[in-house]
Design goal:
Elements: H1 2-15, E1 22-24, H2 37-43, H3 58-69, E2 71-73, E3 78-79, E4 90-96, E5 99-104, E6 109-114, H4 119-123, H5 127-131, E7 134-141, H6 150-170, E8 174-175, H7 183-190, E9 196-205
Antiparallel strand pairs: 1-6, 2-3, 4-5, 4-7, 5-6, 7-9, 8-9
Helix pairs in contact: 2-6, 3-6
């Protein structure tokens, strides 16, 4: 039953039928991340071709998001990625052709942001980005930071980016880190304030 619900939610997210304001993610599947660190480092590559018709189920998406910057220790609130002065500033927007959600690692949910298609702005002329079922947009939200520092955001986004690479490798998937995008269009579409720094995006797929 859980598999059916997860699949239904995944199809809902991909198709844009996001009537809910919040989508509960399944728990990350640690067994899928069982590849050794050595093998993951050896096999990690950047890919710029994706199968347009092969979907990524919600369980797999949840596992990638957790690996990126999910909660690794619920008691302390620590996350899977290092973070300067423990700002935990990197936020991940999950973008599809039918809308955008914001990952909330503490609640393990996707909060629906809007139904806008940002892929054209994220792709910036590179068609392969629009072929991937999801693109993960990494921003550094320093609105609540004790010490605002753009370099901290740049560094922290690198940690999260590498986690996405390694998770995708372990899951037999493809990704690439990209700084190319129309940042003005993305900022406007997501209504991002100036103290949110747009860092990278990662198309993910097969």
């Amino acid at each position: 039953m859980k598999k059916i619900v997860s699949l239904a939610l995944g199809l809902m997210l991909c198709s844009g039928l996001m009537a809910q304001s919040t989508i509960q993610l399944p728990q990350p599947d640690m067994k899928k991340l069982s590849m050794s660190l050595g093998d993951a480092l050896k096999n990690r590559r950047s890919y710029r071709e994706y199968q347009k018709d092969k979907a990524v189920d919600l369980n797999t998406l949840s596992t990638i998001l957790w690996a990126a910057c999910g909660i690794s220790d619920p008691a302390s609130g620590k996350i899977t990625a290092p973070s300067a002065i423990n700002m935990q500033d990197i936020k991940i927007y999950v973008c599809t052709a039918k809308g955008v959600c914001l990952y909330d690692p503490k609640a393990n949910v996707l909060n629906v942001v809007n139904d806008k298609n940002l892929l054209e702005s994220l792709a910036s002329g590179q068609q392969f980005v629009k072929d991937a079922p999801y693109t993960l947009l990494l921003v550094s939200d320093q609105s609540k930071a004790r010490r605002k520092n753009a370099h901290f955001g740049d560094i922290d986004s690198g940690y999260v980016s590498q986690n996405i690479y390694l998770a995708c490798t372990a899951l037999g998937m493809k990704t690439v880190a990209r700084a190319m995008m129309d940042q003005d269009a993305v900022r406007s579409a997501l209504n991002l304030p100036e103290d949110v720094i747009i860092e990278l995006n990662h198309p993910i797929g097969y």
